[in-house]
User: Which sequence fits this backbone?
């Protein structure tokens, strides 16, 4: 069992895969002909936008919640602090496992997100507008009521769960030459990189990060986690201000490079995915495709074998999509 100072290994990811089993969808890896033309190499899409709850986050949340249920006889439930994909995933996972769940959301939470969390049977508490206020409250309630806090990325069970995306890619496309992964706090990137470098050691692994939220990029330049404060990218799942303490060393060890993408490049990728692959992908999940489109220019001498873009989620309102596409 990993503790927080031990790195996550392939064995932990395989264990996570067994633990979460068929409670998650083995998402399709689709060939994308038009993107392949544009990128001058074969492009495949790992469709976590088609995952249950609409994003990969369910994998880590389930691995964590199931391990809590396995080990905590006296445990009275779980709590987290996110109105986004992580909050929904924890609510869904807790309901599956039969644990009570509380989600702390911002006072200005979108009704549609609050409804999704309530729909999975969780209790919702509204608090403040910053994530630090919410995390503080969640941790206080956790201590008072003996609940287990489920972090969004900085946790070995979360990383191992997200790494199962990498296990599936290695099985679905053993000759992948590169894998591109959106990066926020780095849970998905560190998990996928661990799996890919263990199983396909010759494949490159890239993180795709908005230029407006370039905390992981800057942290790599400085060799330590850097905090960039509040960010405003349209990729709302990637607005973390700093990489994780647990995830960053893994990113440092396994990830070949971080590719920065502009807001315009994210919007263009969203349009291309919708028009040519018929896939609805939220802005955060489009950063990998946006990065793939830049690779010929950024890495002209790289191996031109197949590249996999992880489309990390699909939770976006149609009114937002219309705005992004029409406002282009
Ligand atoms: C959370 C999230 C990410 C970023 O994941 P991290 O593990 O925080 O790096 C990327 N895409 C989507 C859709 C997300 O919900």
Assistant:
């Amino acid at each position: 069992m990993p503790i927080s100072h031990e790195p996550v290994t392939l064995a932990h990811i395989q264990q996570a895969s067994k633990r979460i089993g068929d409670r998650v969808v083995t998402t399709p890896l689709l060939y994308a002909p038009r993107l392949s033309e544009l990128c001058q190499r074969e492009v495949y899409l790992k469709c976590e936008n088609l995952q249950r709850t609409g994003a990969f986050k369910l994998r880590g949340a389930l691995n964590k919640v199931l391990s809590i249920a396995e080990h905590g006889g006296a445990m009275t439930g779980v709590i987290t602090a996110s109105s986004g994909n992580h909050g929904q995933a924890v609510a869904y996972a807790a309901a599956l496992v039969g644990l009570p769940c509380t989600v702390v959301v911002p006072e200005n939470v979108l009704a549609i997100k609050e409804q999704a969390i309530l729909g999975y049977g969780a209790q919702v508490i509204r608090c403040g507008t910053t994530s630090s206020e919410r995390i503080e409250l969640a941790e206080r309630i956790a201590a008072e009521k003996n609940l287990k806090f489920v972090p969004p990325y900085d946790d070995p069970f979360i990383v191992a769960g997200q790494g199962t995306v990498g296990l599936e890619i290695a099985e679905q496309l053993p000759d992948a030459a590169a894998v591109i992964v959106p990066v926020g706090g780095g849970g998905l990137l560190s998990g996928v990189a661990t799996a890919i470098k263990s199983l396909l050691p010759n494949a490159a692994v890239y993180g795709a990060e908005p230029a407006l939220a370039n905390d992981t990029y800057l942290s790599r330049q400085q060799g330590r986690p850097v905090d960039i404060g509040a960010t405003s990218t349209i990729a709302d799942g990637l607005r973390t201000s700093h990489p994780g303490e647990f995830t960053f060393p893994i990113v440092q060890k396994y990830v070949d490079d971080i590719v920065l993408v502009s807001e315009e490049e994210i919007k263009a990728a969203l349009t291309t995915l919708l028009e040519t692959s018929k896939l609805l992908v939220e802005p955060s999940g489009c950063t990998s495709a946006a990065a793939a489109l830049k690779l010929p220019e950024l890495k002209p001498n790289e191996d031109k074998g197949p590249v996999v873009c992880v489309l990390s989620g699909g939770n976006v309102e149609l009114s937002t999509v219309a705005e992004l596409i029409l406002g282009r």
In short: The longest helix spans residues 156-172. The chain has a mean pLDDT of 93.
